[in-house]
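Researcher: Let's do a round of design. I'm pasting the structure tokens now; please hold your answer until I've finished.
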């Protein structure tokens, strides 16, 4: 089959915003224009496709956005896009603007949408942009590094005030159902405990350690709790710590504050490299893949593979999910899930040993 000639591609960001999304938009725009392809920005994710909110992007439009937090093309959640009627409106917009393919930056929901567009004749490539790092197929997502650094900055500030007042501070950190931000920042903040979905939380051992360290004269304690455990968890743990250990305790939820901010070097660099790779592949006839960073290599992973390995890792596989995959694929998925589980276990054990 003759390879499709791309004249114009679209770019959108969708789902939760993340620092570095703008850098990815810049990279895709400049990379496509450098290859002689026009670019349009779709404003507000898939809602922009449905509402025909599409505008041309030139190099000058994106020349200063590499350092911007949030996303230059804005983001939104759009339920209408999940239904055939909304999807058809989106396809009609693509046709009206002669959009030959789309690069979609976002999380797993965004990739599901991209697959639906690809099936209907608009080739799409996904770029993982979410602070949560909850895309199992990639080691890093755009925004994760910036969010972790923001949490660490805030945690250091909490340590200062907790030290002055001899308190324990429990901080709930974002991550949706994933504990990546929680476990990494707990280690970096020298937390005495971390609670997250992936590993059973030994709270009694933590209470005993707090009591022992207080007896030795330690003033302050930091405990990190992952958002995925629910809104009540952190607050009730804070009360329990005070009751069980006698250490005055406070609960803090920085919430969306960690979603903003200037992207770190690492997030900018990841965004630029992934954006360029996405354009290169799309123009060479590849679609329905998500760009992943695996062991410091940038690779393309089949979107369906990426979505299913996510479900496998979260123990949410449904009947028939694995039917379309070869034994070799399933083996590779299981190995990746094991790798992620071993990472969480190892990190948890280190924090339990050295956190204080
Ligand atoms: P994220 O991409 O960060 O996971 P969401 O889950 O909110 O965020 O998904 C972003 C958008 O992707 C949704 O608002 C919707 O427009 C689209 N989307 C999500 N799930 C699907 C689906 N199953 N089919 C088609 N589009 C979807």
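Researcher: That's everything. Go ahead.
Model: Designed sequence:
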């Amino acid at each position: 089959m003759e390879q499709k000639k791309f004249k114009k591609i679209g770019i959108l960001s969708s789902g939760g915003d993340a620092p570095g999304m703008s850098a990815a938009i810049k990279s895709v725009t400049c990379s496509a224009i450098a290859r002689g392809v026009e670019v349009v920005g779709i404003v507000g994710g898939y809602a922009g496709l449905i509402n025909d909110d599409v505008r041309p992007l030139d190099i000058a439009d994106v020349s200063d956005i590499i350092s911007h937090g949030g996303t230059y093309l804005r983001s939104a959640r759009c339920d209408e896009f999940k239904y055939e009627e909304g999807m058809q409106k989106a396809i009609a917009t693509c046709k009206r603007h002669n959009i030959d393919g789309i690069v979609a930056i976002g999380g797993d929901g965004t990739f599901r949408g991209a697959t639906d567009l690809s099936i209907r004749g608009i080739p799409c490539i996904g770029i993982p942009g979410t602070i949560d790092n909850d895309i199992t197929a990639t080691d890093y997502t755009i925004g994760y590094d910036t969010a972790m650094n923001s949490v660490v900055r805030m945690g250091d500030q909490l340590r200062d005030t907790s030290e002055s007042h001899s308190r324990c501070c429990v901080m709930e950190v974002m991550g949706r159902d994933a504990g990546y931000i929680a476990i990494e920042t707990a280690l970096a903040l020298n937390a005495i405990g971390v609670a997250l979905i992936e590993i059973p939380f030994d709270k009694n051992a933590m209470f005993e350690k707090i009591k022992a360290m207080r007896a030795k004269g330690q003033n302050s304690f930091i405990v990190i709790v992952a958002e995925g455990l629910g809104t009540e968890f952190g607050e009730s743990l804070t009360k329990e710590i005070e009751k069980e250990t006698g250490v005055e305790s406070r609960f803090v939820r920085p919430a969306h504050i960690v979603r903003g901010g200037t992207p770190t070097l690492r997030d900018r660099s990841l965004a630029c490299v992934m954006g360029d790779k996405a354009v290169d592949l799309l123009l060479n006839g590849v679609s329905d893949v998500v760009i992943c960073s695996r062991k410091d290599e940038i690779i393309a992973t089949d979107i369906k593979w990426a979505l299913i390995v996510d479900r496998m890792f979260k123990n949410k596989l449904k009947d028939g999910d694995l039917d379309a995959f070869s034994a070799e694929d399933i083996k590779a998925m299981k190995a990746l899930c094991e790798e992620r589980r071993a990472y969480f276990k190892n990190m948890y054990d280190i924090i339990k040993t050295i956190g204080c």
